[in-house]
Every structure is written in structure tokens, then in C-alpha cells.
Amino acid sequence: MFPEFRDLISKLKTEDDHFSRIFNKHNELDQKIKNIESSIELATQQEVEVLKKEKLKLKDELYTILKKAAA
After folding, report:
1. With b meaning 16 or more CB within 10 Å and e meaning fewer, what string describes 7-21?
2. Number of domains in the chain
3. By residue range, what is the domain housing residue 57?
């Protein structure tokens, strides 16, 4: 995710608690969605859609933080 910000992501994960929490939550949701799609975990299609929307919202927030930090 966001390879152009790889160094900045590493820096923010250690220096910004809010960024770190959002980043970790995004990764947790990503793994949960992958587990559901691989039939490791069970969920309805509606639950998957809610998870995907939450993940996208977090990704948008991460991108906003990265853009501001890079400026």
C-alpha cells in the first residue's frame, strides 16, 4: 500500500500513534477479509461489504495523513 510513501510510513508508524493505530486496523481488516474470502472465517456478503467499506475509509484517512506529512 502506497509504495511511494514507504519511508514516510515507517517513520509515522513509530512517531505518530494515531497513524499507527489506523495503519494496524487497516491491516487487520485486510487480513480478516482475506480469511473470509478464503473460507477460513465465515461472514455474510453484507458483513464483508461493511468490512471493505471500513477498510477503504481507513485507507483514505491514511493517504490524507501521508499527503500532509509529505508536504
Report:
1. ebbeebeeeeeebee
2. 1
3. 3-70
d(CA 15, CA 7): 12
Whether residue 1 is predicted with pLDDT greater than 90 in this model: the reply is no
Terminal alpha carbon distance of the chain? 19
Residues 6+ apart with CB under 8 A from 1: 26, 59, 62
Work out the number of other CB atoms within 10 angstroms of the CB of residue 24: 12
Residue 24 banded pLDDT, cuts 50, 70, 90: very high
What average pLDDT does this structure show over 13-35?
98
